[in-house]
Amino acid sequence: MTLRRAWMGAVAVFVAVLEAVAAIPSRASTYAVYIPLDDPIYTELETLNGLGYLYTYLDEIKPISRVEAARLTLEAEEQLEASTAPAPLAKSLIRTLRMQLHEEVGWLESNSEDDLPTMAHPLERMQLQYIYSDGNPRRWQTSPIGTQQQCCINAEEATPLLPNNDGLPTASGSNEVASLYGWAGAGGFLAGYADGALAGPLTHDTSGISRLQPIAAAAVASLGNLAISFGLEQMWWGVGYFNSLSQSNNASPFPALRLQNIHPFLLPWFFRYLGQFRTQFVFGEMNDSGYRYFSNPYLFGQNFVFKPLPTFELGFDHMIMFGGRHNDNYSFGGFLGRATGFDTGNPNNGNTHSRGGLYFRFYFPSLRNSQLYFETMGNDNLAYEVPGVGHFLPFLSVSYLAGIYVPRLTEDGLTDLRFEFEYTDVNEEQHDDSLYWAYEGQLMGTSLGPNATQVDLQLGRWIALRNKLSADFFYTQQAPYCCSNGPSGSSGFAFPAAYYPYPLASEHSEGVAFDFLQLPRPLPILSESLATLRARAAVEYAQSLNYQAHADSVRFLLMFSGALTPGWPSWIWK
Q1: Domain 3-182+191-573 falls in which CATH fold?
Q2: What is the pTM of this model?
Q3: How many Å apart are CA 144 and CA 148, to the nearest integer?
Q4: Is the peptide bond before 63 cis (omega within 30 degrees of 0)?
Q5: Each residue of 334-371: pLDDT tens digit?
Q6: What's the gap between Cα 136 and its chain centre?
Q7: Checking CA distances to 530, which of 133, 182, 492, 565 falls within 20 to 30 Å?
Q8: Cβ 48 vs Cβ 94: under 8 Å
Q9: Where are the domains of the chain?
Q10: Cβ atoms within 10 A of the Cβ of 497, count?
């Protein structure tokens, strides 16, 4: 099957879904513009949720839209007004959110969300960033580049000690990043937004990588509460804070067609007992990076999250990678079978790589609203699937993530504590026929890599109700891994001579990172524009980096970032 036929088949399936959705009466449509994942809005909402002022915030699917963030702002404000407890931090956060989302909050308060004029925000945010990086990046390579024996995984850190940064290219030494984010809406339901960056060192090259990198660029149509988008969009699935097992923005975004609900809602009939509900469907295509034998495979994924109780959230996600060059010997029916997971194929007529996970989050109001969260994810690679259910929820090569978050470590709610543990299976991210989870040379899920363990302990403190300083202490252990049918485990590997020109050893590292955030504040001299500041300093001592015995290394990162949201009004055409 050619790429064109495959995309036509996918479009036909989505058209059928859209026709079914269009038959459902919708009372409102709006502009669904998604918020970049590095925006402080997420920190503000997470803090309000931890303090107990949000009941319908389901952050296991990100990014969220600006209008959804505005709805959550009003929800938190309503809960705060109903509370008798003093909450200076919550008041400060809500006040800041109102400034950031003043237009969208106005739509909801005036009940005009479904009757919007054509408008444009060509510069919603301008951001400048300086990054100083010192130390070798981690690499994961289990096959020689440029051959037809690709196996398992080929990826590299974009910037040491700065994961989940959209794969922006940097080099050792000083780097500069400039980004612009803007959006426009037409007809009351169709919106487009883009976030682009110019990244890398100004004084020397970045190994042939383009400095101009799109972080997001998509068109979004809303039909009632359903948003349909196509383009490059960031993704974050699951409960993890430091990492995401399933999908993250560690790599640059891939082109995809997406369906999701803008606001959470209750399902009909008895399904309403599952509580507030959010979902996302994704169909996209991977890149041809120049060395993949099975280049341009497709991705089809689903994520479902429910909140049946005020103190309990649960969800599951699934994604399958299939097709691509040399891997598409199937009919249109075979295409649908692979996309849905009913027929996952075989190496002779088109192999697939599935991954699926379950996650939970528990709230304990009597323990200062502490949270306990857990996630597990399995892959189907390197072993047979479990009959009956293995196609849909793989149970092999299982990885785990668990954490505890205490948002009110001190009674005033200004200090929080987070502990997170992550373990990745020896075959995490990998597959023995190039269907591995890397895009543009970056890991798409967790930035940790396979056969690794990481522990994070972070202590945070709010200062003057608008500045947050956090200290993260972390320990990481990575062992050599295998693919194909070779031995596995902490000391096993399949092809050491072919892929690593030195004896392999387990890697251990420990480090500390300090993060500073100043929430957006108005600048009267610039027409009430909002200014945001971020900074990060991190150092790590790694032993046997990249599995090279006695190759000890000190890695260091220094990052400063300043963002400006212009205060001028939007351009409106009526």
Answers
A1: Porin (2.40.160)
A2: 0.90
A3: 9
A4: yes
A5: 888 888 777 777 777 788 888 889 999 999 999 999 99
A6: 24
A7: 133
A8: yes
A9: 3-182+191-573
A10: 9
